[in-house]
Write a structure and sequence with these properties.
heterotrimer, A mainly alpha (307), B alpha+beta (530), C mainly alpha (290), A: 307 residues, mainly alpha, 12 helices, flat, C: 290 residues, MetI-like fold, 11 helices
Chain lengths: 307, 530, 290
C-alpha cells in the first residue's frame, strides 16, 4: 500500500514538469506582452522594465531561472501587480475558492444523490423521469445563465440574498448553488446508474428476502454501490468545479483564485499564470492520488488492478 | 410573510454590518483591481481615484470648473516668460505619521519617478520640466541639472522647457505627488519596484485619507487622516473601493444598495434608468474621444482620398442615437469641443456623394477592386456593436468589404504598436484639460500616434504652439494643425465620450467635471432613506 | 402466432438495440428533435427571413412581432435569423470538435488496447494523469494567447474530450482482443494495422456512438463557456453560446434575446442527452457504468 501511494506521488512530479515547460513556452511565444499599454512607453523605459522582470534574457535562460526559483517555492512577483508576489495572491485567493468549491460540492452531492437514489427506486416511472429531468436542467443551462437568473430571482426581485461579493454567509449561497447545480445532474445520473446495478444483484434480493425494511436495504446495502461511481467521478468533478469557478467568481465577484487566473491570462501576467496553473495542477493531481487511495482502500479488489 | 422575512434578513445584515461598526463609509465601484498604490509605477484611472485620497500635490483643482486651488502649496508665482514657477508650501502640511511635508519631499518624488531604473511608464508627464526628458532617458545623470530647485524647507522652484499653461492643473495627476522618503527607503532602494512600502500599515501619505485595508480583488478601505492639514473640513470619514470588473454585477450591487457610486453603467440599462430613475443616473461630459485609427502605411489606405472617403461615410448620428445610449455626442473633429475654451473649427462632413467621388477618384469606382480590409477592436460589447454597424455602413454606402477582427487588450495594443492592422478602434482620454494633450499624439514619431502618419507642417504648428504664450495665438496654431489632421485623415473621429454612472442620492456635495475627477474630501453621506 | 415466429427468427445485436431504442420514447423524441435541428441548420441560408447581417439601427431591440417573429437585437438584427445561423455554427463546432476527439481517442485507445502489455499500461497511465488535469485552463490559455481561430477552437475543445473516448475504446478492444475471430486474424498473418482498422474498430462502434452522442452537448457547453469569457466564436459569426451570453447581458431589458437562443440550445442538449441515454440503454440494457 505504501509503495502504491509513494509511486502515485512520485508520478506527479514529471507531470508538473511537463506542464511548467509547456505553459512557459506557450505563453512566451504568443503575441502581446505584459507591458503593452495604451499610452506608449519609450523604448528606454521598456528596456528597464524588461530588465527588472528578467524578460530581456534569452528565453532558455529565463526558463532555467524560473525553474530554479520554483525549487525554492518562489513563484515570483506578479507582473501586473508589482507590489504583490504570486505566492501572496494565491494565498489570498485559494482559501476563498476552496470554500466555494466545498459548498458547491455539498450542493451537488445533496441534490444529486437524493435525485439519483429516489429515481433508481422506481426506474422508468414518473418518479424516475421527474428528478432526472430536473437534474438534466442543471446540465443544459450554462452556469453563466443560471447565475444571473438566480441573482434576478433571489437578489433583485425577492431581495432575499445579496447579488455579489463574499462578505458573509448569505453571500455564499447563490454562488455555491450556481457552481454546484451542473454537477448535481451528473451525480444524479451516476448514482442512479450505480444504484440500479447494485439493486439488481443477488445479495439485495437476499436482504429483502430476509425481511429487512426497504429503507434499510437501500441505505445500508444499496448506497455503497451507488456511491462507488460517484467517488470515481470526484476527481473530474474537482477539475470541473475549478473551471466552473472562473465563471461563477466573475459573475458574483468572489475574490477567489479563479478570478485571479482569468485576469492574469488576459493581462499576460506570465508569472501569475504559471503560478496558478502549477498550483491548480499540483492540487488536482494530489487530490486524485487521494481519491485513488481512498478507492483502493474501500475496495481491495481494485488494488491489484490499479497497483 | 415575505416582507417579514426580508425585514429579518435586513436586520440581520445590518447587525453584521454594524458589527464592523464605525463611521458610515462611501462604497464605490472602482473598476479593475489597481495595479498597485505606488504613484510612480501605476498607470490607470482606478489607481488615480485611490491615490487621490492618499496623497496630495502642490496644487489641487476646484471640482466644478477645474481651476487650480492651493493644496500643499499655499501660494505660487509665475515668471513673465511662463517658464519658472515658485511654490510656497504651507507649514501645517503633514504626512500621515505626523512628519511635516517639505519641499524636499517633492524633489525626491520627482527624482524618483524620473530615475530610469525605476522604469516608470508615466514618467513622461514630467517631461515639461527642463532636462527631465534627458534625465529620464539616461542622457544626463545629475538630477541637479533638471529644472527642480529646493529653495528652502518650504519653497520649491520649477523651471520648464516651454511655457506650459496647463502646468498647474497637471499637479492633480499622481505622477506629481510627493512621497515619503523614509518609508520608501525603509523597504528598499529608491528605484526598486514592488517593495512593501505601499501595504496598509506601511504606507505614509499626505492626503485626506490613510490606507486601512487592502484585500486584492476584494476591497480597499481608506479612512480619514487626522494629520491632514485640512482634516477639519473632511466630512466623509471612510471610503470602500470595490474592484468590480463586471458591469452588470456592479449595476446590480448598486440597485441593492451595496454601492453608492458606480464606475459605469451597462449600455442596455441606460434607457431603463432614464425612464424609471433619472435621479440616479448621471451623464457627464468627459474629456475623451472615441475614434478609429487608419494604418497609413498599408495600401490602399495610404491614399488620403480613401481615408477621407471612409471617414465621410460613417453615420455618426445614427450610431450615437440608436446604438449608444449614454448621450454621447457625434464627433466630427478630434479634440473634444470646449476643451479649455478651444473648439475645433474644421469638421469631417457626413457626405456620401463626396465619399463615393473620392473613392472613385482614388481608383475604386463603386468599390470595385477595393481589397478586403480588416477592422480591429478590443474585446467589448460596445466596440463590437459599433464595429458591426460601421462595417455595414461601409458595405452599404461604399460597397467595400470589411472584415471584423477582435483581439483582447494586450494583443490589440501590440498590433497597434507594430502597425499590424488596417483600421482599428481607439480611444483617448485627456490627462489634463488642454488641446495639446490630444493634438500632440499625432506628431511624427509620437508613441501614441500608431498610424504611421507624419506631417512636417503639423509638427511645426504643434512645436510653435509650445513656445507661444497667449491663448489666442496658441489656439490659432492648434486650429491650423487640427485642420491638417482632419484632411490627412489618419483617424476617423466617431464620438465623444460621456461619463455615465450611477450615484445614490445619499451622496452629497457631488461635483462633476470634464476629467471625471472625484474629490472625495468634498463629499459626505446623508442618512439612508426609508 | 406471427409474433412468436418473428422472435424465433433471431435478431442481431443491432436489430435488438434498434428495437429497444424505438421503445424508449424520450430517446425517439430526442432523435426527432436533433433531426429537425440539423435540417434547420442545413437549409438556413434559403429559409432565413433576413440576411444574417441585416441591421435596422432605427428599430433597435424590439419585441417579437409579425415582422420579426422572435424580435430583434440592439442593432435591429432579426433574432430568428441569428438563432438559425447560430445553430449552424454551434452544431458545426459540436460535430467538428467531437470528431477531433473521436479520431484521437479511437486511434489511441484501439492501439493501446490492442498492443496490450506494458505499452498499454503506459498509455493508459498517461490518460489517467491527463484525465485529472483541468483541461479548461489550457484551453483558456491557448485561446487567449493564440487568437480566436475557429479551427483552433475545434482542436482545443476536442482535446478536452478525447480521454474518455480513449478509455472506452481501449476497454472494448481489450475484451475483443481475446476473442476467436481476432486470434484467427492474427494467425492468418494480417498486419496489426489491418486488424485494428478492419476488425476491432467496427466492433467497438456501439459504445463509441453512445459516447459521441453524449460528447456533443458537452462540447457545445464548453463553447458557450468560452464565449462567456470572450474566447469562443468571434463576430461576425455567432453561435448559440455567444447569443446566450449577449442575451444574458441584457436579460432584464430584452429577455427575448436570452430566451430564444437558450431554448434552442437547451432543446438540442436535452435531445442529445436523451438520445445518448437511450442508445446506451439499448446497447447495454443493464445500464451499468457511465
Amino acid at each position: 500500500m505504501t509503495r502504491f501511494v509513494a509511486r502515485r506521488i512520485l508520478e506527479v512530479i514529471p507531470v508538473l514538469f511537463v506542464i511548467v515547460t509547456l505553459v512557459f513556452f506557450m505563453i512566451r511565444l504568443a503575441p502581446g506582452g505584459p507591458f503593452d499599454a495604451e499610452r506608449n512607453v519609450s523604448d528606454e523605459i521598456l528596456r528597464n522594465l524588461e530588465a527588472y522582470y528578467n524578460l530581456d534574457a534569452p528565453l532558455h535562460r529565463q526558463y532555467l531561472d524560473y525553474l530554479g526559483q520554483l525549487l525554492w517555492g518562489d513563484l515570483g512577483p506578479s507582473f501586473k501587480y508589482p507590489g504583490w508576489s504570486v505566492n501572496e495572491l494565491i494565498l489570498t485567493g485559494f482559501p476563498v475558492s476552496l470554500e466555494l468549491g466545498l459548498y458547491a460540492l455539498l450542493v451537488a452531492l445533496g441534490i444529486g444523490l437524493t435525485a439519483g437514489v429516489v429515481a433508481s427506486l422506481k426506474p422508468n416511472t414518473l418518479r424516475d423521469y421527474v428528478p432526472m429531468s430536473l437534474a438534466m436542467v442543471g446540465i443544459c443551462i450554462p452556469n453563466f445563465v443560471l447565475g444571473p437568473l438566480l441573482v434576478l430571482a433571489f437578489g433583485l426581485w425577492l431581495g432575499w440574498l445579496p447579488v455579489a461579493g463574499w462578505e458573509g454567509p448569505s453571500y455564499k449561497i447563490l454562488p455555491a448553488i450556481t457552481l454546484g447545480a451542473g454537477y448535481a445532474a451528473y451525480i444524479a445520473r451516476l448514482s442512479r446508474g450505480g444504484m440500479l446495478e447494485v439493486l439488481a444483484q443477488d445479495f439485495i434480493r437476499t436482504a429483502r428476502a430476509k425481511g429487512l425494511t426497504e429503507a434499510r436495504v437501500v441505505l445500508r446495502h444499496g448506497l455503497r454501490g451507488g456511491l462507488q461511481p460517484v467517488v470515481s467521478f470526484l476527481g473530474p468533478a474537482a477539475a470541473g468545479l475549478l473551471s466552473g469557478s472562473f465563471v461563477v467568481e466573475t459573475i458574483f465577484q468572489v475574490p477567489g483564485l479563479g478570478r485571479f487566473f482569468i485576469q492574469a491570462a488576459f493581462n499576460r501576467d506570465y508569472t501569475m499564470i504559471l503560478g496558478t496553473v502549477l498550483f491548480y495542477a499540483a492540487l488536482i493531481l494530489m487530490f486524485n492520488v487521494i481519491v485513488d487511495v481512498a478507492q483502493a482502500w474501500l475496495d481491495p479488489r481494485l488494488r491489484d488492478e490499479i497497483g | 410573510m415575505k416582507r417579514l422575512a426580508r425585514l429579518t434578513l435586513c436586520v440581520l445584515l445590518c447587525c453584521v454590518g454594524c458589527a464592523k461598526s464605525g463611521p458610515p463609509a462611501l462604497r464605490v465601484g472602482n473598476g479593475t483591481e489597481p495595479q498597485g498604490l505606488d504613484p510612480h509605477t501605476v498607470t490607470g484611472i482606478p489607481e488615480h481615484r485611490i491615490l487621490g485620497t492618499l496623497f496630495e500635490g502642490l496644487v489641487d483643482v476646484d471640482p466644478d470648473d477645474l481651476t487650480p486651488v492651493p493644496a500643499v502649496a499655499e501660494s505660487w508665482t509665475i515668471s513673465d516668460d511662463g517658464k519658472v514657477y515658485t511654490f510656497t508650501l504651507r507649514p501645517e502640511a503633514r504626512w500621515s505619521n505626523g512628519d511635516p511635508v517639505t519641499a524636499h519631499d517633492f524633489a525626491y518624488a520627482w527624482q524618483r519617478i524620473l530615475t530610469p531604473a525605476l522604469a516608470s511608464e508615466y514618467a513622461y508627464m514630467l517631461h515639461c520640466l527642463k532636462n527631465a526628458r534627458a534625465f529620464n532617458e539616461g542622457r544626463i545623470t545629475d538630477f541637479d541639472q533638471v529644472g527642480v530647485k529646493v529653495l528652502d524647507e518650504h519653497r520649491i522652484e520649477t523651471t520648464l522647457e516651454n511655457p506650459t499653461p496647463y502646468f498647474l492643473s497637471m499637479q492633480i495627476h499622481y505622477t506629481w505627488f510627493p512621497v515619503h522618503r523614509k518609508t520608501i527607503e525603509a523597504f528598499g532602494r529608491m528605484d526598486e519596484r514592488g517593495t512593501r512600502w505601499t501595504r496598509p500599515g506601511n504606507l505614509v501619505g499626505n492626503g485626506a485619507y490613510m490606507l486601512k485595508r487592502w484585500a486584492p480583488n476584494n476591497i480597499i478601505e481608506v479612512v480619514a487622516n487626522e494629520h491632514y492639514w485640512n482634516a477639519a473640513q473632511v466630512r466623509l470619514k471612510r471610503v470602500f473601493f470595490y474592484p468590480i470588473d463586471n458591469l452588470l454585477t456592479e449595476e446590480r450591487s448598486f440597485r441593492t444598495g451595496r454601492l453608492h457610486l458606480t464606475g459605469s453603467v451597462p449600455l442596455a440599462k441606460v434607457p431603463v434608468y432614464q425612464r424609471k430613475h433619472p435621479e440616479l443616473l448621471r451623464i457627464d461630459p468627459y474629456l475623451g474621444a472615441y475614434y478609429y485609427r487608419i494604418n497609413v502605411t498599408r495600401p490602399p489606405l495610404d491614399d488620403a482620398r480613401v481615408r477621407r472617403a471612409l471617414a465621410m461615410s460613417v453615420d455618426r448620428v445614427a450610431l450615437t442615437k440608436n446604438v449608444l445610449t449614454g448621450g454621447q455626442a457625434p464627433a466630427y473633429a478630434f479634440c473634444v469641443p470646449d476643451t479649455a475654451d478651444y473648439t475645433c473649427a474644421s469638421a469631417v462632413p457626413y457626405d456620401l456623394d463626396e465619399a463615393r467621388r473620392l473613392l472613385a477618384e482614388a481608383g475604386y469606382p463603386n468599390g470595385e477592386g477595393f481589397p478586403r480590409i480588416e477592422l480591429l477592436y478590443n474585446t467589448s460589447e460596445n466596440h463590437k456593436l459599433i464595429a458591426e454597424a460601421i462595417q455595414r455602413m461601409w458595405k452599404q454606402e461604399l460597397n467595400i468589404d470589411v472584415g471584423l477582427l477582435n483581439q483582447d487588450w494586450k494583443v490589440y495594443l501590440d498590433s497597434q504598436n507594430n502597425l499590424d492592422y488596417d483600421v482599428c478602434r481607439a480611444g483617448w482620454i485627456g490627462d489634463f484639460v488642454d488641446p495639446v494633450n490630444f493634438l500632440e499624439c499625432f506628431t511624427t514619431g509620437n508613441g501614441n500616434n500608431r498610424t504611421g502618419w507624419s506631417s512636417p507642417k503639423y509638427d511645426d504648428y504643434i512645436a510653435r504652439a509650445a513656445q507661444t504664450v497667449g491663448q489666442k495665438a496658441r489656439f490659432d496654431l492648434f486650429q491650423q494643425a487640427e485642420r491638417i489632421l482632419l484632411e490627412g485623415a489618419p483617424i476617423i473621429p466617431i464620438y465623444y465620450y460621456t461619463r455615465v454612472y450611477l450615484k445614490s442620492p445619499q451622496v452629497q456635495g457631488w461635483h462633476s467635471n470634464l476629467l471625471g475627477y472625484i474629490s472625495f474630501k468634498h463629499l459626505h453621506l446623508a442618512e439612508a432613506g426609508p | 402466432m406471427d409474433r412468436v415466429v418473428q422472435v424465433e427468427k433471431g435478431a442481431s445485436l443491432w436489430q435488438d438495440a434498434l428495437h429497444r431504442l424505438r421503445q424508449n420514447k424520450l430517446a425517439v423524441a430526442g432523435l426527432a428533435i436533433l433531426a429537425v435541428m440539423v435540417a434547420a441548420a442545413l437549409v438556413t441560408p434559403w429559409v432565413a427571413p433576413y440576411a444574417y447581417d441585416a441591421q435596422d439601427l432605427d428599430l433597435g431591440a424590439a419585441r417579437p412581432s409579425a415582422r420579426h417573429w422572435l424580435g430583434t437585437d440592439q442593432l435591429g438584427r432579426d433574432v430568428l435569423t441569428r438563432v438559425l445561423y447560430g445553430g449552424r455554427i454551434s452544431l458545426m463546432v459540436g460535430f467538428a470538435a467531437t470528431a477531433v476527439s473521436l479520431l484521437v481517442g479511437v486511434l489511441y485507445g484501439a492501439t493501446a488496447g490492442f498492443l496490450g502489455g506494458r505499452t498499454d499500461s503506459l498509455m493508459m497511465r498517461i490518460v489517467d494523469i491527463l484525465y485529472a488535469l483541468p483541461f479548461t485552463i489550457f484551453v483558456i490559455i491557448l485561446m487567449v494567447f493564440f487568437g480566436r481561430n475557429i479551427i483552433l477552437l475545434f482542436l482545443a475543445i476536442g482535446a478536452v474530450q478525447w480521454l474518455t473516448m480513449a478509455r472506452i475504446v481501449r476497454g472494448q478492444v481489450m475484451s475483443l482482443r481475446n476473442t476467436e475471430f481476432v486470434e484467427a486474424a492474427v494467425l492468418m498473418g494480417f498486419s496489426h494495422r489491418r486488424i485494428i482498422l478492419r476488425h476491432l474498430i467496427p466492433n467497438v462502434l456501439g459504445p463509441v456512438i453512445v459516447y459521441v452522442t453524449l460528447t456533443i452537448p458537452n462540447v457545445m457547453l464548453i463553447e458557450a463557456f468560452l464565449s462567456f469569457l470572450g474566447l469562443g466564436v468571434q463576430a461576425p459569426m455567432s453561435s448559440w453560446g455567444l447569443l446566450i451570453k449577449e442575451g444574458a447581458d441584457c436579460m432584464e431589458e430584452y429577455p427575448w434575446l436570452l430566451l430564444f437562443p437558450s431554448i434552442a440550445l437547451s432543446i438540442t442538449l436535452f435531445a442529445l442527452n436523451f438520445l445518448g441515454d437511450g442508445l446506451r440503454d439499448a446497447l447495454d440494457p443493464r445500464g451499468a457504468g457511465e
